[in-house]
Design goal:
Strand content: 15-25%
Oligomer: single chain
Number of helices: 1
Shape: rod-shaped
Distance between the termini: 129 Å
Radius of gyration: 41 Å
Order of helices and strands: EEHEEEEEEEEEEEEEEEEEEEEEEEEE
Number of strands: 27
Helix content: under 10%
Strand order of the largest sheet: 3-4-5-6-7-8-9-10-11-12-13-14-15-16
Structural class: mainly beta
C-alpha cells in the first residue's frame, strides 16, 4: 500500500490487519494496523469544517464498543466549527444548549429552547419544551409542549406534557402533571400538582391546587388553597378560599350546581358544599356537609347524632343560643318512657289531658348528664309532668324539688336537665329546673 497521511487517504476498503502509517503525538513515525487504530480511537482531523448551517456526521463502525463501564466520546478539535452554537443529533434526538448557545442552558428535544436569545439557567427537555423562551431565565420545562409559550418569564417549573404551555411572562409558577396550569398566561406564583390542576387559570395568582382537577375551572381567581381530587373544581373567580377533601367546595347545596364564586370561605370534608354563589365567610366542615350561606358555620351533616366541644371553662357565643324545634306526634294519652328525638326544643301538641311519667333517651342513644330539654305545650289540653312516677323506668323519671307534679296548660313551658347523680333527690333522672 502506498504511504499516505491518514487525513489524505482516499475512501477505500481496508482489512483490520492492514498497516497504515501513523505519527503518534510526541513519538516517532511508524505503522499500525487498522484494528489497533480503531481500538485506540479516531478523531476528526483538525482541518475538517462543515461551515455555517452544515453538519458533520460521525457514524461509529458496527464493531466499535466502549467496554464495560466505558463510553464513546465525540470531542471536536480546536479548529472544528459548525458555523455557530452547536448541537448533537443522536438518532434524530437533538441535544444542545438551545438557540444562542448560552452555556448554562440545557436543551434536549426538537425545538427545545429554539428561540432563546439571552435567557440563562434554563432546562428544557421534550418536543417544543420552552421553545419560545427569549430572555426568561431559571426555568425548568420537562415534557412535550411544557412551557412552550413562555418568553420572558422566569423561575418557573413545568413538569408534564402541556404543563404551563400557555404561560408567556409568568413567573414563580410550579406546575406538575399532564395539562397542569396549561392555560396560565400571565398569572404568577401558582402551584398546580395533578392532572389538569388549575387547567383554565389565565391571570389568577397565588393559587395552590394539589390533586387531579383541583381548581380546574379557576380563571382569574386568586389566593385559593385547594387540596384533594376535584377540590374547588368549579371555582372560577372566587378568592381566598380553602377547600380540603375530594370535591370539597365544588358544588351548591343541591350537589349538582357548580359553586363558582365563593370568597373567604372554608370547605373541609368529602363533597362539603356551599349554600350558593353568595357564599362569603362560610365555613362548612364534614362529609357532605351543606353550608347555610354567608357568615355562617356548619359542622357535620344531617346524619350527625352527637357533637362534643371541649371547653374546660365555658362555651362562648356573641349572639343568641338557638335550638331547632321538634314537634312530636300529638299526645292523646299518657306517655311512659316517652322518647323525644331531635332538638332540645320540643313542642308538645297535647289534645287530650295526659301525663308524662318519664323521658327515655333518644332512639339508639343513651342518657347524657347535662342534656337539656325545653317542653312547651302548644296543644289544646293540659299535659302533666309526673314526679318520680313508677310507671316509667327509674333512669327515665322526673323529679321536682317539692316532690309535686307540674301541670303545663296551653303555652306554658318547663325546662329539664338530666342528672345521673343522686344528690338527695332520691335517684338519677330529670330535674325540672324551671316552669312557667
Amino acid at each position: 500500500m502506498p504511504s499516505k497521511r491518514i487525513d489524505e487517504l482516499d475512501a477505500r476498503t481496508v482489512a483490520d490487519t492492514d498497516l497504515l502509517p501513523v505519527t503518534p503525538s510526541g513519538g516517532p513515525s511508524g505503522k499500525a494496523t487498522v484494528a489497533a487504530i480503531v481500538a485506540e480511537g479516531l478523531s476528526q482531523p483538525n482541518s475538517a469544517s462543515a461551515g455555517a448551517g452544515a453538519s458533520i456526521t460521525i457514524k461509529a463502525a458496527d464493531g466499535v464498543t466502549s467496554g464495560a463501564g466505558g463510553s464513546i466520546t465525540i470531542t471536536p478539535g480546536a479548529q472544528a466549527t459548525t458555523g455557530g452554537p452547536g448541537k448533537v443529533v443522536i438518532d434524530t434526538l437533538t441535544v444542545g444548549l438551545g438557540a444562542s448557545g448560552v452555556a448554562t442552558n440545557t436543551a434536549i428535544g426538537v425545538s427545545a429552547l429554539a428561540a432563546n436569545t439571552s435567557g440563562s439557567n434554563n432546562t428544557a427537555i421534550g418536543y417544543q419544551a420552552g421553545q419560545k423562551i427569549t430572555t426568561g431565565g431559571q426555568n425548568v420545562a420537562i415534557g412535550q409542549g411544557s412551557g412552550k409559550a413562555l418568553t420572558t418569564g422566569g423561575l418557573n417549573v413545568f413538569l408534564g406534557a402541556q404543563a404551563g404551555q400557555s404561560a408567556t411572562t409568568s413567573s414563580n409558577n410550579t406546575f406538575v402533571g399532564l395539562n397542569a396550569g396549561t392555560n396560565v398566561n400571565t398569572g404568577d406564583s401558582n402551584i398546580a400538582i395533578g392532572r389538569s390542576a388549575l387547567l383554565t387559570c389565565t391571570t389568577g395568582y397565588n393559587n395552590t391546587a394539589v390533586g387531579s382537577f383541583a381548581g380546574q375551572a379557576i380563571t382569574t381567581g386568586t389566593d385559593n388553597s385547594l387540596l384533594g381530587i376535584q377540590a374547588g373544581q368549579s371555582i372560577t373567580t372566587g378568592t381566598f378560599n380553602v377547600c380540603l377533601g375530594r370535591e370539597a367546595g365544588s358544588y351548591h347545596g343541591n350537589g349538582s350546581t357548580p359553586l363558582t364564586t365563593p370568597t373567604n370561605s372554608v370547605y373541609i370534608g368529602y363533597s362539603s358544599r356551599g349554600l350558593n354563589n353568595s357564599d362569603s365567610n362560610s365555613i362548612v366542615i364534614g362529609y357532605q356537609a351543606i353550608g347555610e350561606g354567608a357568615n355562617t358555620t356548619v359542622v357535620g351533616n344531617s346524619s350527625t347524632v352527637q357533637q362534643h366541644f371541649y371547653a374546660t371553662r365555658y362555651l362562648r357565643t356573641e349572639g343568641s343560643l338557638v335550638f331547632a324545634s321538634s314537634t312530636p306526634a300529638a299526645i292523646v294519652t299518657s306517655q311512659n318512657d316517652y322518647v323525644l328525638n331531635g332538638s332540645a326544643f320540643q313542642r308538645l301538641n297535647c289534645t287530650t289531658v295526659s301525663d308524662i311519667t318519664g323521658i327515655a333517651p333518644p332512639t339508639s342513644g343513651a342518657h347524657v348528664d347535662g342534656r337539656m330539654i325545653r317542653l312547651v305545650n302548644v296543644g289544646t289540653a293540659t299535659v302533666r309532668l309526673m314526679h318520680n312516677s313508677a310507671s316509667s323506668t327509674a333512669a327515665n323519671r322526673m323529679f321536682r324539688h317539692n316532690a309535686t307534679d307540674v301541670s303545663l296548660t296551653v303555652n306554658e313551658w318547663a325546662d329539664l336537665v338530666y342528672d345521673s347523680t343522686d344528690n338527695g333527690s332520691g335517684a338519677a333522672g330529670w330535674r325540672i329546673v324551671k316552669y312557667a
